[in-house]
Amino acid sequence: MDLEDPNFERTPYEPFVAYGRSKTANILFAVAFDKRHRERGVRAAAVHPGGIHTELARYLDPGRITKMIEQMNQQLAVEGKPPFPWKTIPQGAATSVWAGIVAPADEIGGRYCENCHVGRIVADDVPISAISEGVRGYALDPKTAEALWKKSEELVGESY
Predict the structure, then answer these.
(1) Which of 32, 65, 67, 145 has the fewest other C-beta atoms within 10 Å?
(2) Domain extents in the chain
């Protein structure tokens, strides 16, 4: 997250950097929201559906996605793991349904969920290409979550 330049006004725009920042912001927002509302019994969690073929990549060179998947699969093979699994829409929806209906709120509140469980925290020194599951600790940092919340209020001109 770059709270000093959230809209890439001073930083060169790169689609996957922007995508990663937006996903990090989603997680941080869930952390901040959960902190603000848990005492009222309202909880929030960040939910990752997994890789699903959508229109997200419609403006990207198809070869770029293929190359990324190939790199991920090479790293997964080195680790003795199966290749990257594309999910169906129902498979992608499963974690949202699990988090919203099945999982105990105290277990998932303010956390990152994937594949119908709370995701593990991945060390910052693990290369991004080696991550098939999990979340970086900075995406769950309460201080950064609070700073993002304040920045969001500033950007929309409202206080919540």
Answers:
(1) 67
(2) 15-156
The answer to whether residue 19 is catalytic is yes
| Buried-state track 52-81, b at ≥16 Cβ within 10 A, e below 16 | eeeeeeeeeeeeeeeeeeeebbebbeeeee
| Cα radius of gyration (the chain) | 17
Q: Is the pTM of this model over 0.85?
A: yes
The active-site residue out of 19, 59, 138, 160 is: 19
Which residues contact residue 103 at a Cβ distance below 8 angstroms, ignoring those fewer than 6 apart? 45, 113, 116
Sheet containing 117-118, strands listed edge to edge, beginning at the edge strand earlier in sequence:
46-48, 112-114, 117-118
For residue range 19-49, what is the model confidence (pLDDT) as tens digits?
A: 899 999 999 999 999 999 999 999 999 999 9
